[in-house]
Amino acid sequence: MNSISYNQKLARAYAAGSVSGCCSSVMFQPLDLIKTRLQAQPMVVSGVHLTSTVSLHGDITLVRSLLFKENVLGLWKGLTPSLCRTIPGVGLYFSTLEYLKGKLKISQPSSLQNFALGFSSRAFAGTVLLPVTVVKARFESGQFNYPSIGKAFTTIWRTEGMRGLYSGAGATIARDAPYSGLYLMFYGKGKEVAARVFDTDIASPVVSYACGLNAGLLASMVTQPADVIKTKMQLQPYKYRNSLDCLRIVLAESGPNGLLRGVTPRCLRRALISAMSWTVYEELLMRMKIKD
Fold it and tell me: Which of 72, 81, 100, 123 lies in the 20 to 30 Å Cα band around 107?
């Protein structure tokens, strides 16, 4: 470790994470908007249950509709609350990760340790930032007309109370914590395999990005059902008693396909944003001379 203090290391990890989160959020916000709109659409059309909710054609149709109604800038709707969540959220995640590694004295974590570290760090950061996540989802859905982020918070608090600000908490943690744990596990193992098979530098940005894409796709597929439940509970908190009730209703209305709604833009976005965040984060740490 370099001569900087432990607190300085955590502060720089937070700063690097915040910068990486900001860059990736701005670039890939349209994919998050499309995913949220797809999941927010009614499950029933003209009284007939939808038979397929996973369709690339449906994604393209939605994009065309958004461009026609709201123009190109409409694809970045919800960017402000997204940045309010992502900048401190990603910074908090990475600094928590570094904190746990330092306290547990783990320098080269195993796959299981990577899963536990990623899971714990995301669970903490996700819980702290959950109210902002709720506001972000509602802005992106197009179903609410809050004039500002501050007004959104006060309106939710006044009309729904703490339950509204923390709606979908279980589903959010069930999505984000396992995702981060799986991502970090796949990411670490992927870099090890790449370095061994291709005899390349494990710290190479190209290797980091490629391994990040692969890890993001795998982790996204596993956690997709929880993302659908999370979105529905945050948009309609009084329709469902809890996450299990929401799961039951989704399955009853649209079958297993309902749990894969928005899977294409989500997997694409999560893979791209995670790969970029980790690549930028590790490069910044190198330049700050934090990593060995």
Answer: 123
Structure pTM? 0.76
Query: 157 with 164: CB under 8 angstroms?
Result: yes
- Under a CB-based contact definition with an 8 Å cutoff, are residues 143 and 36 in contact? no
**Spatial distance between the Cα atoms of 145 and 155, rounded to a whole number of angstroms:** 11
Strand partners, 48: 45
As a whole number of angstroms, the distance between CA 98 and CA 189 comes to 19
DSSP the chain: --SS-HHHHHHHHHHHHHHHHHHHHHHHHHHHHHHHHHHHS-SEETTEE-S----HHHHHHHHHHHHHHHTGGGGGTTHHHHHHHHHHHHHHHHHHHHHHHHHHT-SS--HHHHHHHHHHHHHHHHHHTHHHHHHHHHHHHSS---SSHHHHHHHHHHHHHHHHHTTTHHHHHHHHHHHHHHHHHHHHHHHHHHHHHS---TT-HHHHHHHHHHHHHHHHHHHHHHHHHHHHHHH-TTT-SSHHHHHHHHHHHH-GGGGGTTHHHHHHHHHHHHHHHHHHHHHHHHHTT---
pLDDT at 39 over 50: yes
pLDDT given for residue 44 in this prediction: 47
Interatomic CA distance for residues 75 and 271, integer angstroms: 19
Query: Where exactly are the structural domains of the chain?
Result: 6-287
Q: Does domain 6-287 have CATH number 3.10.580.10?
A: no
Confidence class of residue 49 from pLDDT cuts 50, 70 and 90?
very low
Cβ proximity of 195 and 202 under 8 Å:
yes
